[in-house]
């Protein structure tokens, strides 16, 4: 079954057609990699999936229901969006891992946070580290853990390993592949990374706002 489905989705700003009558399906356990030249519309597809913006025309469904009819707060818990060079919140690393519990009004699960930290090779001692003191690679890993404290149905990744070194990239991809396989989370990843593209399960190329087949 499709977890996200685009039906003839267009996105236009002024006279500029950014996406043109796009049909696209993300199945329950897909790992979809979106590629294409710069400016083709890849990030726009992700921001539409994340409901940061709304389609100009057409319909986007989540598990068979029009997203326009769904509660945006609940939707964002199911469809989680991670960007390149994400901002960290609060003062410490742990503030970021507490945040998902705070917005849900539930108790923070420190064991879960520590388990995730270990999976991306961050020591427990880093919990108290100030966010302004973490490196770019650490920041990307911490932000990704924030997305995974509560497992979404779909994880949207916008060039999240761009600018990271090979070691950091491998750590990040290992966790993503693991949650995809173990927890059956659908992944939609926009990338220019050659290695990621070579290892991709399903690739979609976007050219001038359309899927090129
Ligand atoms: N709000 C907006 N107003 C005007 N133009 C926009 C807006 N959002 C996106 N665009 C334009 O739409 C096109 C597609 O942008 P998008 O960011 O989706 O491309 P992309 O394929 O992700 O590119 P890149 O690989 O460089 O990140 C670009 O030409 C961009 O300038």
Automatic annotation (TrEMBL):
InterPro entries: AAA+_ATPase (IPR003593), ABC_transporter-like_ATP-bd (IPR003439), ABC_transporter-like_CS (IPR017871), P-loop_NTPase (IPR027417). The keyword Ribosomal protein does not apply. GO terms for biological process: phosphate ion transport. Keywords: ATP-binding, Cell inner membrane, Cell membrane, Membrane, Nucleotide-binding, Phosphate transport, Translocase, Transport. The keyword Ion transport does not apply. SMART domains: AAA. One of its GO terms (molecular function) is ATP binding. Residues 4-213 form the ABC transporter domain. It holds the Pfam family ABC_tran. PANTHER family: ABC TRANSPORTER I FAMILY MEMBER 17, IRON EXPORT ATP-BINDING PROTEIN FETA-RELATED. This is ABC transporter ATP-binding protein. It comes from Paucilactobacillus oligofermentans DSM 15707 = LMG 22743.
